[in-house]
Amino acid sequence: MSVLLALEGVSKRFGATQALDGLSLTVERGEFVALLGGSGSGKSTLLRVVAGFEAPDAGRVLLDGADQAGVAPPARPCAMVFQNYALFPHLSVFDNVAYGLRREGLPKLDIAARVQQALDMVGLEAMAARRPHQLSGGQRQRVALVRALVKRPPLVLLDEPLGALDAALREATGQELRALQRATGAAFVMVTHDQAEALALADRVAVLEAGRLVQCAPPQELYERPATRFVAGFLGGANVLEGVVGADGLVQCPAAGCTLRLDAPALPGTRLAVALRAERIALAAEGEVPAENAATGVVRGATYQGAGWLCTVALAGGQSLRVLVPADRAAPPLGVPVLLHWAASANIPLAD
Ligand code: ADP
Ligand code: MG
Fold this sequence. Notes:
Largest sheet: 6 strands, mixed
Strand content: 25-35%
CATH superfamily of the largest domain: P-loop containing nucleotide triphosphate hydrolases
Number of strands: 20
Bound molecules: adenosine-5'-diphosphate, magnesium ion
Number of helices: 8
Strand order of the largest sheet: 6-7-8-3-9-10
CATH architecture of the largest domain: 3-Layer(aba) Sandwich
Structural class: alpha+beta
Shape: elongated
Distance between the termini: 32 Å
Number of domains: 2
Low-confidence stretches: none
């Protein structure tokens, strides 16, 4: 693999809003990167800067090693799929897809062959004569995608491509997207605010917060080793315990009323935040309390989530923990004291 896209310290400000703040990121050839972040975190701005619709205030965008400063969008080796698809309403599906190739002045026969082949690829061959308003949402999404792919760019930028689809269609279309990405060999950078989608589809997930890149890692690493409190909370809503490391290397957490043993002991005296996922905590009826990685509390709430019961357990020290009780067990009764315990490997120390 080799680097296709490199962002080096890119900043972009709109009035008082710092949309991108010294952001650096590389994307390999043929890689699928998901950009994950809350509303207003700078995801769309990042794509627009790469595509050339916005010029950065500082930093550089390199494509294939070439600085893109001053290069107009159509001249860049990338294509963008816009959030609202931005199809031409008065043009047929065929003409929408052919538009970019015609602008390049390709011979008519070549254009027809390439458009046909591209429409075949996503099962839209029978829809070529239709206008966008005669298509379903999922079909419009595929036309927008094919319009970007038909020029065979090495990099495709997709801004919430599945955002307008309903939940059932979303998952299947996401898988199709991934298959197409593999088949074409293009690198995809896809914006989403849906963490499950990002984890399911991407080779690496880049998490944005206030215009900064907070972590970029493969899905499993991001979920199991979130670097910061923000990432831990944003992905799967992990619990965060606060404590101080004692001389014995154990972490004393007063608000949770528990002592944590970490897989890798931390420096005595350090203040530490530790993420702990709801599904890693076992809930038992009251019994003997283990000295480490355990706490007692009272169940205050339990909501059914399909995969199990998501319980809120109020601990003696005042803090509440989210605990997932598997669906094959009965919902724990409210107001009843319980014992929580977990493995040392479930404690994830956070950088900040
Ligand atoms: P996201 O796509 O993550 O929701 P955006 O990149 O669209 O976020 O926007 C990041 C921030 O920059 C937001 O606060 C947004 O309001 C602001 N912003 C984006 N584009 C413009 C613009 N053209 N003019 C003024 N503010 C903008
Ligand atoms: Mg956006």
